[in-house]
Design goal:
The complex is a heterodimer. Chain A is an alpha+beta fold. Chain A has one domain. Helices cover 34% and strands 14% of the residues of chain A. In chain A, helix 1 (19-27) links the parallel strand 1 (13-16) and strand 2 (32-35). In chain A, 38% of the residues are buried. Chain B is of the alpha/beta class. Chain B has three domains: 3-96, 2-Layer Sandwich (Gyrase A, domain 2), CATH 3.30.1360; 171-311, Succinyl-CoA synthetase domains (Rossmann fold, 3-Layer(aba) Sandwich), CATH 3.40.50; 325-523, Succinyl-CoA synthetase domains (Rossmann fold), CATH 3.40.50. Helices cover 41% and strands 19% of the residues of chain B. Chain B has 19 helices and 19 strands. In chain B, the strands form five sheets. Chain B has a six-stranded parallel beta sheet, with helices on both faces. A five-stranded parallel beta sheet of chain B has the order 10-9-11-12-13, sandwiched between helices. In chain B, strand 18 (468-474), helix 17 and strand 19 form a beta-alpha-beta unit. Chain B is globular. The chains are: A alpha+beta, B alpha/beta.
Chain lengths: 56, 525
């Protein structure tokens, strides 16, 4: 199956982080969903590695 | 002096929002300094360095928010603190107006057909978020820096297996399907495809192409490390392939700081195998000769010029100045004839890292040694980044200047202070700077920097000197700040505005050397 590449698609964006980027996309008429992001596992490095392994 | 540190347990706000709040509070009357930041180890160290060594700060965790204020009186302190709390709460009120999922999974429930995730969380968390996106077959624009090379390689290899793009880490700019991601300019849609490891590289080249009446199909960012030996150009190679297949793209442009040479050679080999012509600017890299299907250029402006020439079916030529030799000589004359005898040095204050690198390369045949915080020659590396020596070019976007504050394209505080500092040096002749417009940048950079320029000029005048200012404005008339209006404001304040970074650097060189290098400069052509 040939995959449709991003260059041929209309952008639909999920923004994780800086609000300015989401606002700029909206000004350009791009649909954006913002994630209310907080550091996972309270920023604990070991826990982060574990979370990554679990794929969550 | 009264100081306070307040720790808000478990409150998170993104870095740009916090820096904007910090700036607002810092600028209040009676406030000596203020910082509102997440209590990451880096921010805690910065706060300690500027004199906040409070016990509650030492105990704060990375997911706690800190408000630190130093004021001239208790009254100013309390008023500033009240304002900071109010602004933070107003932000919360603004955010709760719409539903915000707390995870990527939640966001996908709201937007199941999303195709791109823009990630700008602190570096240590960035890989986790990017990997989650890739596993769900989503492309990634990864603005975050401080992601390890190993993680970058893992992300990029996995993305390639899934035929996805990972633009980054440390990717500032991209334009996909006419949409600007991160920091970028509003440019015409057109036939030029760009793959770039440099954000400001995309900004300079895309705006010059736009201003010449052409346009951009896509500009794919790769992140600044893509052409290193370890990463091996994984995303640049993929980008080249995508642009080769893209029907809209007629000419391809590759931009990067000097790459690993064997990676560069692999990329040149791919470029030679394509049906389309490729124009390459690997700033300062020694790439010999010309391939069958690729050209190498010396400056970002020459890159834009070569691309436009190809589209016009003309032979690419080098641009030294857009204006004639007589015109530039006369502009330089009208500046340096007002100097006092001792004035001879250029101080370059750049917000674009690539623009600073390009400036260093351009002046190297004409000036004896330029000191810089980003010099690749060890003996020219500035010992103290806060003190210029002879000719000095500074990349003010580099990490040592951005800890605890926003990038100089957003926050002009340090550049304004530095302009005044340089103005007091009796040997300084020219202050050279860039103004980068577009999404993400300051809403009115010229308006922000002009008061410092006027003050610097009058400081010099009081001391019997004349201070020359030369700038380039990187932008288009379609940008939210309007490049034409920004240039006009600067010109009215007595700044010589040139159409590109390269031309601004040459003009500064002409003025500082009192036209001595004019023949040599034009011979370059």
């Amino acid at each position: 199956m040939t995959k449709k590449t991003l260059l041929k698609e209309k952008l639909k964006v999920i923004n994780i982080g800086i609000e300015t980027f989401a606002l700029a996309l909206e000004k350009q008429g791009v649909p954006v969903v913002r994630v209310d992001w907080k550091p996972p596992a309270g920023g604990d490095k070991e826990m982060l590695k574990l979370l990554e392994k679990l794929g969550v | 002096m009264p100081r306070v540190v307040i720790v808000k347990k478990g409150m998170f706000r993104d870095s740009i929002t916090l820096m904007k709040l910090s700036k607002l509070i810092s600028e209040r009357e009676g406030v000596r300094q203020a910082a509102i930041a997440m209590a990451t180890p880096l921010n805690k160290r910065y706060l300690k360095d500027i004199g906040f060594n409070h016990k509650n700060l030492r105990k704060a965790e990375p997911n706690d928010l800190v408000i630190a204020i130093d004021a001239i009186s208790e009254e100013s302190l309390n008023a500033a603190l009240e304002e900071a709390e109010k602004l933070l709460l107003a932000q919360v009120a603004m955010e709760v107006k719409e539903y915000r999922p707390s995870s990527l999974e939640g966001a996908l429930e709201v937007m199941p057909d999303a195709n791109l995730v823009v990630i700008s969380v602190p570096g240590e968390f960035a890989k986790l978020e990017a990997m989650k996106a890739l596993k769900r077959s989503l492309n990634v624009f990864l603005f975050s820096s401080n992601v390890s090379i190993e993680d970058e390689i893992e992300l990029k290899k996995f993305a390639l297996e899934k035929q996805l793009l990972v633009m980054g880490p440390d990717c500032g700019t991209a334009i996909i399907n006419g949409v600007v991601l991160g920091f970028g300019n509003v440019v015409n849609r057109g036939e030029v495809g760009i793959v770039s490891a440099s954000g400001t590289g995309i900004q300079q080249v895309s705006t010059l192409i736009h201003n010449a009446g052409f346009g951009i199909s896509h500009a794919i960012g790769t992140g600044s490390n893509d052409l290193s030996e370890k990463v091996g150009g994984l995303m640049m190679k993929r980008g080249l392939q995508l642009l080769e297949e893209d029907e809209e793209t007629r000419v391809i442009t590759l931009i990067s700081k000097p790459p690993n040479i064997s990676v560069a050679n692999e990329i040149l080999k791919i470029a030679d195998s394509l049906s389309k012509l490729t124009v390459i600017n690997f700033l300062g890299a020694k790439l010999e000769g010309k391939g069958k299907k690729w050209y190498v250029t010396n400056t970002l402006e020459d890159t834009a010029e070569a691309v436009c020439a190809i589209l016009r079916n003309e032979k690419p030529r080098r641009v030294i100045f857009t204006k004639s030799e007589e015109e530039v000589t006369s502009i330089a004359n009208s500046e340096f004839t007002r100097f006092s005898d001792d004035q001879k040095y250029i101080r370059g204050l750049f917000s674009g890292g690539t623009l600073c690198h390009e400036a260093l390369i351009i002046v190297s045949p004409f000036l004896d040694g330029v000191h810089s915080n980003v010099s690749i020659e060890p003996e020219m590396k500035l010992k103290n980044i806060n003190k210029s020596v002879e000719h000095t070019f500074i990349d003010m976007g580099s990490e040592e200047f951005t800890v605890g504050r926003a990038h100089p394209m957003i926050d002009f505080t340090l550049r304004k202070m530095r302009i005044l500092q340089e103005a007091k040096d009796p040997e300084v002749a020219v202050i050279l700077f860039d103004i980068v417009l577009g999404y993400g940048a300051h809403p009115d950079p010229a308006g922000e920097i002009i008061p410092a320029i006027i003050k610097a000029k009058s400081l010099a005048k009081e001391r019997g000197r004349y201070l020359s200012f030369v700038a380039s404005v990187i932008g288009t008339e379609k940008d939210p700040q309007n490049a034409m209006e920004q240039s006009n404001k600067l010109k009215e304040a007595g700044v010589i505005v040139m159409p590109s970074n390269a031309q601004a650097v040459r003009m500064a060189t002409l003025i500082a050397t009192r036209n001595k290098v004019i023949k040599q400069l034009f011979k370059e052509e």
